[in-house]
Design goal:
Layout lengths: L3 H8 L19 H4 L6 H6 L9 H7 L5 H15 L5
Length: 87
């Protein structure tokens, strides 16, 4: 008699569970170190002088930009603004 469970496991691709779902990879948690970010790029696009803060009104206006890179930069700026600082 053939063991059906072992035959299924041999047929299934590695990394797949029963039902065909892929296993989720564990998140690194250090994504920001790997991100390719040009510091001050959004500030320059918005015309904000160095040392001044970008206001939420400016971020809201820039989020409606036709440039997808600018929209991503705004989303990242908002995420950073909401992050809690670790001391």
């Amino acid at each position: 008699m053939v063991n059906r469970a072992s035959t299924r496991q041999q047929i299934m691709k590695p990394g797949l569970r029963r039902g065909g779902r892929l296993k989720k990879k564990k998140k690194d948690g250090k994504w920001i170190q790997k991100a390719n970010i040009e510091k001050g790029a959004l500030r320059k696009k918005l015309g904000v002088k160095k040392g001044k803060k970008i206001t939420m009104a400016q971020l809201n206006k820039a989020s409606k930009s036709s440039n997808p890179t600018t929209r991503k930069q705004v989303a990242l700026a908002r995420a950073f603004k909401n992050m809690k600082r670790r001391s």
